Amino acid sequence: MVLAIGSIHDLHYVHRDIKPDNVLLDANGHIRLADFGSCLKLFEDGTVQSNVAVGTPDYISPEILRAMEDGQGRYGPECDWWSLGVCMYEMLYGETPFYAESLVETYGKIMNHKNCFDFPSDPGYEVSQEAKDLMKSLICSSEYRLGQHGIEDFKNHAWFANLDWDGIRDSVAPYKPEVSSPTDTSNFDVDDTDIRTSDAVPPTANSAFTALHLPFVGFTFTQGSCMSDLGSIPLDQMSSSKFEEERLQQLEDENQRLLKNLTELKRLLQNQGGLSGVGEDGRRISPTSESGNELESQLKQQQPSDLKREITTVDGEGSQRVREMEKMIRLLKQEKEEAQKDKVDAQEKLKLQDKELKDALGQRKLAMAEYTEVTDRLSELRQQKQKLSRQVRDKEEELEVAMQKIDSLRHDIRKAEKLRRELEARVEEAMAETGKERKLRERSEEYCKQMEEETEKLRQRNLVAGADTSAANQSHASQEIVRLKGEVEKIEVQYNESLAQQQSRYNLELASLRDQLQEAESRRDALEREV
C-alpha cells in the first residue's frame, strides 16, 4: 500500500479515495490499487484545490473537509496517508476510528480527531506499540503527519524494520487467490441489491424508435458500417450517382440549346419562304434553306433515335437515383428527427442532472449548516461541561471544607463530652465528699449528744459524790463540752463553706458546658443544612 500510494505521488497525482474496497489482489496475491476516478493532478507547489468532499466519509481527511467549508482550501498528498492510517486501524481493530451513525457526527469526530481518536481498551486486542505509533503518526494533523518526505519516512519507522522494500514484489504473498481464468469473478462478493435494473424506458412518440442504443447517446457514429443506413450505399456508387446527375443536366442543357436553334431556323425559313426571284439573294437563301433543311432532317433523325434513347436511359437511371436519393433523404430526415429527440432527451437529462446537482448542493449546504449547528452546540455543551466541572470542583472544595469543619466540631464535641464526663465525675466526687461530711456532722452531733449525756451523768454523779469534787469535775466537763462544741461548729462552718464553693463551681462549669454543647449542636445543625 505504501509503495502504491508513493508511486502515485511520484507521478504528481493524489488519489483521494484510499480505502480497503479500492485495493485488489492479483493472481500472485500482491495488491493492486484501483479506482482512480477521484485523482487530481498536483500543481507546481504540490497541492490541489477543490471545494468538493470526495472520498468515503469514514476515510476522508480533515483538510479535505476544511477545504469544503471555506471553499478556498488547498491540500496535498498527505490526505492519502491519513486514509492509509484509517485503513490500518480498521484492519487491526475491525472498525474505523471515527465511525458514527450519522454523517455529521462522523465529520465532527474527524475534525475533532485530537480528542476523539483513541485505541480500544479491550484486552482482546493485542497491538504492538510500534503499530500504535505508526497509526498515531498517520492519523494526526497534516503538519506532523508521516509521509511528508515520501516513503523514506516509512522505511525509517520501527514497524517496518527488517523489511525488504526493493524485493517485496518478488516475495511470496501470504495469500494467493484461486482463479481459473482472467475473467474469473468468483472471489468477488456481489449482493443482489447491487444489481439494479435500468430506469431508462424507450420513448412512445415514434414506434419505429426502439431506443436500444439510448445509453450510448453521443457514441453512435457508424460511418462505413454495414449496419448503418449510409453504409448500405458504396462510396463509388454515391460518386457515380453525382456524375450521372451532372451528365443528365448537361444533356438536358444541350437538348434545350438544340431545340432553341431549331426554332430559330424554322422562324428564319418562314420569314424567307415567301420571297421569289433569282439573283444573289435567292441564291443565298436557297443554300441556307437547304442547310436548314439538312440540319432539321439531321435533328429529326437524331432526336428520335440516339437522343431519345439516351434521354430515356438517363431518365430511367436518374429516376432510379432520384428514388434512391429520396429514400436517403427520408432516412436522413428520420435520423435527424431521432437525433433531435435524442437531443431533447439529453437536454432533459441535463436539466434533471442540473436539478440533482442543485439538490445535492442544497443538501450539502444543509449538512454543513447542520454540522455547524452541531459544532456550535458541541462547543456550548463543552463550555457548559467546563462550567459544571468548575462548579463541581468548587462544591467539592466546599464539601471538603465543611467535612473538615464537621470533623473539628466532632472533635470539639468529643472534648466537650469528655469534659462533661469529667465534671460529672467531679460532681459525683463532690457529692460523695458532701455525703461524707454529712455523715461526719451526724457523727459529730451524735458524739455531742453522747458527751452531753455523759456530762449529764457526770453532773448527777458529782451531785452525789460531793460538792468539791463535783465542782472541779463540772468545771472540767464544761470546758470539754465548750471545746467540743467549738470544734463541731468550726467543722460545720468549714463544711458549709466548702460545700458552697463546690456547689458554685459545679454550677458555673455545668453552665459553661451547657453553653458549649448548645453552640456545638447549633454549628453541627448549620453544617448539616449546608451539606
UniProtKB/TrEMBL annotation:
Q: One cellular component GO annotation, for this chain's record? A: cytoplasm
What is a single molecular function from GO for this protein?
Answer: ATP binding
All copies of domain Protein kinase, residue ranges? 1-160
Q: Which residues form a coiled coil?
A: 241-272, 322-530
Q: Where is the composition biased (Polar residues)?
A: 286-305
Q: Is Transport one of the keywords UniProt gives this record?
A: no
Which region is the signal sequence?
Answer: none
* Alphabetized Pfam families for the sequence: KELK (PF15796), Pkinase (PF00069), Pkinase_C (PF00433)
Keywords associated with the record: ATP-binding, Coiled coil, Kinase, Metal-binding, Nucleotide-binding, Phosphoprotein, Serine/threonine-protein kinase, Transferase
Q: What does it catalyze?
A: L-seryl-[protein] + ATP = O-phospho-L-seryl-[protein] + ADP + H(+); L-threonyl-[protein] + ATP = O-phospho-L-threonyl-[protein] + ADP + H(+)
Q: Which residues form the AGC-kinase C-terminal domain?
A: 161-231
- Span list, region Disordered: 273-308
GO BP, one example?
actomyosin structure organization
| Enzyme Commission number(s) from the entry | 2.7.11.1
InterPro entries xref list = AGC-kinase_C, KELK, Kinase-like_dom_sf, Pkinase_C, Prot_kinase_dom, Rho-assoc_Ser/Thr_Kinase, Ser/Thr_kinase_AS
Organism superkingdom? Eukaryota
Concerning its family, UniProt says: Belongs to the protein kinase superfamily. AGC Ser/Thr protein kinase family. DMPK subfamily.
Q: What is this protein called?
A: non-specific serine/threonine protein kinase
